Amino acid sequence: MVPLPCCGRIIVSIMKITIKLFASFREAAGLSEAAVEITPGTTAAELWQGLVEKHPGLAPMSRSAGMALNGRYTQPTTVLAEGDVVAFLPPVSGG
Amino acid sequence: MVPLPCCGRIIVSIMKITIKLFASFREAAGLSEAAVEITPGTTAAELWQGLVEKHPGLAPMSRSAGMALNGRYTQPTTVLAEGDVVAFLPPVSGG
Amino acid sequence: MIGQSKQVVSGISHTLFEVTGEPLSVDDLVRVVLTEGDGAVVTFVGTVRDNTGGRNVVALEYEAYTEMAEAEMRRIGIEVMEKWNLHGIAMRHRTGKLSVGEISVVIAASAPHREAAFQACSEALDRLKETVPVWKKEYFKDGEVWVGQGAG
Amino acid sequence: MIGQSKQVVSGISHTLFEVTGEPLSVDDLVRVVLTEGDGAVVTFVGTVRDNTGGRNVVALEYEAYTEMAEAEMRRIGIEVMEKWNLHGIAMRHRTGKLSVGEISVVIAASAPHREAAFQACSEALDRLKETVPVWKKEYFKDGEVWVGQGAG
Questions:
Q1: For labelling, which of A53, A76, C22, D91 has a CA lying 20 to 30 Å from the CA of D45?
Q2: pTM of the predicted structure, to 2 decimals
Q3: Which chain D residues are within 8 Å of A93, Cβ to Cβ?
Q4: Nearest in space to D111 (alpha carbons), one of D140, D82, D91
């Protein structure tokens, strides 16, 4: 998925991923799941920033956001790949 | 229940009590419950000794015998009274 | 319901202390101890294990001095309840011959928070095993023995 | 039975890790974890309490990231099982809106002896509360709030 030089321009390839939001995040953004397109090299943290820009209600929750990649906890620095499912998780409170 | 002097002899009053035996004690003596008569001043330990004389199979169990009076644990030195229910208890093993 | 009448007699709600010949249900005891102020119920479920000290056990038989066992369980239960500020506690012991895998005893303790419920349930079990007049006979393929009663 | 198929997938019998919208039964989980080699099952039963921090709670709502919650419970369960030499472990969490007194979670751990079962059940619960992606909303008479999620 390296950008290919072609015709004097850079073609940026696009990757499709799925975002999942839960609990207060879901309510603040008004969505529980969304298909989004990102450029290669995008990290989980950058994806969250993009979300916050689109849904400013999420901004106060940035500090507490946990992240999961394909159903496992992951770091904000993780680079995403085509087809990934990225979940943003408020602090858990089960039991 | 003090013995009454009468007619130049001592009349020993008799008290009726109930004995209960459980588990290995019950099997060794071949009885689970019995009505017995004792003389005033008899202790729980003396009652057990009387039982052992009648049922020698109980003799090896003397060291481990717990005693209960009317449904509560009691000491071997406890003096019994009319109507008492005295239980002899092997080491417990519930749970 | 025997259990119901006993609750009335003891004067303390959400408690039950019973010896029974019937199969035991954990959910039944959870319902007894649960109050609206509880967030945690811890239960202990004792079952018939298929071995002891390396020997195969085929069955267990429990015998109880029923009236005294229920009174002892109540005494223990009320003391544990007060010590750990429980909202409810119940102890039910089965008697008779039980097969491997059957439940012999259930203890349930309810509390606002989980630490007290765990501690109380464990302590109630330890004390039950120490003083409640119930006896266990182990059946092997080639014999039987009362547990901890020497020549029995 | 979802639970049954999961047991097969995990390859470890006497285990079950499930998120469900249905009411929970403690006896069901005891049956899952019990093996013939066990003498002790300890269960934790979490229930909806009628108060929190001095405020009256009228209901709780649980939301889960179901697939991940089940995977996390399995990861925790298998680790706890190995650490304490359990014979079985099960964790079932309910989702949806629950009334006061209803059961939100059941954890059951079975072991040959009681100490391991108590320790394992308590540890599994602590770890569930730390990492399993389930969220709780408290409903009061005058509002609602996601627990521990700030402005939520």
A1: C22
A2: 0.90
A3: 129, 134-136, 146-149
A4: D82
